[in-house]
Specification:
With 545 residues, the protein is mainly beta. Helix content is 8%, strand content 49%. The chain is built from five helices and 34 strands.
Length: 545
């Protein structure tokens, strides 16, 4: 699979819904929610569909047509999608992901591959599933025109959530020896957890021999996407989307693979930072996620929160953590692949699932977490100085030079070369000669103070424990809310470690846990360690009051 083609994509189509951003097709991890529409026989009243969101612009959809298929499934005017690329690419074909929720898909399409104005291939395909690989090896293409002629079901919109430049290699139960998924969240928002997939494959032949030129090593590479599908009660479910991190051949017949979710990939990428003043959270998150190259959904309760403060040069994971923490959210990629940014759950809300004795295994342990009696939050106030001063001196090379600052600054000037791009944390200087350059500007001053929220009553025998929190996006307008939120969360002290047969539970869900027959306690699911080949047994950590 050509992993570089997706980020190099520029997509155009005339027939699309007004909330659609075709840049979604260059992102990884685009899995739209199971949202109800009035398409014929689509919205099943089985409780699995959510109402269509009021903020569809804050969700990555891919392509969703405005035209609807006719009674015979055809489009009156075929829908045309054009993909253009800056560089030349090659792949064994294209894999489309249409709509998984009712297996609706385009059942007749044409693909034309071009190099410049030269037509390389013109091929018709007849997909037969919501995920379908159009196999055609093509080298050195930089434009693709895809014509969608109809749908397998009448009165459906065309929905294309993902296009992969490659074909799917499927590993089934005969090859899988072990497979485990670890899902975690931190309700405080102080860390952004990485979900992981670890599995091993067995082959009777030489497929996992690293010296075999036709072995599986030639198909897998770092950051290669892995789609995990599980079957329970004869129903297939999307268990997660991960990306290859490490591979190890235990022998010529066994291969072990470790993979991470999109947050893990974002941990190894660089965000150049910014300084915000009353910016909408929706806009800030969109900037981070599009720069990182991943799809996302944003809870409507968080989109209009304001973000003020400074994000230094850091990973996209760190940048997203800072923003989500400041607005009272948490992040989960569980059972999908999309980065879902949600409001922190209120433990007094109605639970979404129930874990009774009939699902639990023997061996539940319970412990009481330390009592946090207070929260200290550092407030930041960034103000720009009025005087220009030297920021740094650097030795420029001929060509493009990226200069980074140790503290934010504005009104940047350089003593030599030309500034072609800049931000509060950096500037890019184009130089025609080698030499020392002085970078000057107006620095920002960060004045700080700490506010506290404390329990009004400390139980007898307990010691005072104040947790200090420091984030560049905490300020006078949100520090009190953040301190109270954290103090409330730290009162969730009853931690249960248990094993049970997994149902629909995801981390971040509220669950009623049967602690003794007929007695239930509400808790938030913080961790799930799921054995995919061992009967979907999940080792869980839940916390409540």
């Amino acid at each position: 699979m050509d992993v570089s083609a997706k980020t190099d994509t520029t997509a155009t189509a005339e027939d699309k819904q007004p909330f659609i951003d075709l840049d979604d097709l260059k992102l990884e991890g685009v899995y739209p929610p199971k949202a109800a529409t009035l398409e014929e026989n689509y919205w099943k009243l089985d409780g699995t569909f959510s109402t269509f969101p009021d903020n569809p612009q804050d969700i990555s959809w891919g392509l969703w047509s405005s035209s609807m298929a006719a009674a015979d499934g055809s489009f009156d005017d075929p829908i045309v999608l054009t993909l253009t690329f800056q560089s030349l690419h090659e792949s064994l074909g294209l894999t489309f992901e249409f709509n998984p929720y009712d297996n609706s898909f385009c059942n007749g399409l044409n693909i034309q591959w071009y190099q410049g104005a030269t037509l390389l291939y013109d091929v018709d395909f007849v997909p037969n599933s919501w995920r379908f690989s159009c196999v055609q090896k093509v080298e050195n293409y930089n434009k693709i025109i895809i014509t969608f002629r109809g749908m397998n079901k009448p009165y459906r919109f065309l929905k294309v959530q993902n296009i992969m430049h490659g074909v799917i290699k499927e590993f089934g139960s005969t090859e899988l020896r072990t497979a485990k998924v670890l899902e975690e969240i931190d309700m405080t928002g102080l860390t952004l957890s990485v979900n992981t997939l670890d599995f091993s494959l067995f082959s009777q032949n030489d497929a996992f021999n690293i010296f075999n030129p036709s072995g599986i090593y030639t198909l897998l590479q770092r950051k290669q996407q892995l789609i995990v599908t599980g079957t329970k009660n004869e129903e297939k479910n999307h268990t997660g989307t991960f990306f290859v991190d490490e591979m190890e051949g235990q022998s010529n017949k066994i291969l072990s693979i470790s993979a991470v979710d999109s947050i893990g990939i974002m941990d190894g990428t660089t965000f150049m930072g910014a300084l915000y003043q009353n910016a909408l959270a929706a806009d800030v998150i969109e900037g981070i996620m599009e720069d990182a190259g991943f799809g996302y959904t944003l809870d409507i309760a968080l989109r209009d929160k304001e973000v003020t403060g400074h994000i230094p040069i850091c990973s996209h994971r760190e940048a997203l953590q800072m923003v989500v923490f400041s607005i009272g959210g948490f992040v989960s990629t569980s059972r999908g692949g999309t980065v879902n940014i949600k409001k922190i759950p209120d433990i007094t809300s109605v639970p979404t699932s129930q874990i009774g004795m009939n699902r639990k295994h023997i061996g539940t342990t319970v412990k009481l977490r330390n009592l946090v009696t207070g929260i200290g939050v550092v407030e930041h106030n960034f103000t720009r100085k009025t005087t220009t001063e030297e920021i740094c001196k650097v030795n420029l090379e001929i060509g493009s030079n990226t200069v980074t600052f140790s503290e934010p600054a504005a009104n940047i000037t350089v003593s030599m070369g030309t500034i072609t791009q800049y931000g509060v944390n950096y500037c890019i200087v184009e130089s025609t000669v080698v030499g020392e350059c002085t970078v000057s500007g107006k620095k920002y001053e960060d004045s700080q103070k700490t506010i506290q929220k404390r329990l009004s009553n400390i139980p007898a025998g307990e010691k005072e424990l104040i947790e200090k929190v420091d984030c560049n996006l905490t300020n006078a307008s949100n520090s009190s809310e953040i301190a109270q939120r954290l103090l409330d969360i730290y009162q969730y002290r009853i931690e249960q470690s248990l094993s049970f047969v997994l149902g629909s539970e995801c981390v971040g869900d509220l669950a009623d846990i049967e602690t003794e027959y007929g007695v239930y306690r509400g808790a938030v699911v913080e961790k799930l360690d799921i054995d995919l080949v061992g009967g979907y047994i999940a080792k869980a950590v839940v916390v409540g009051v």
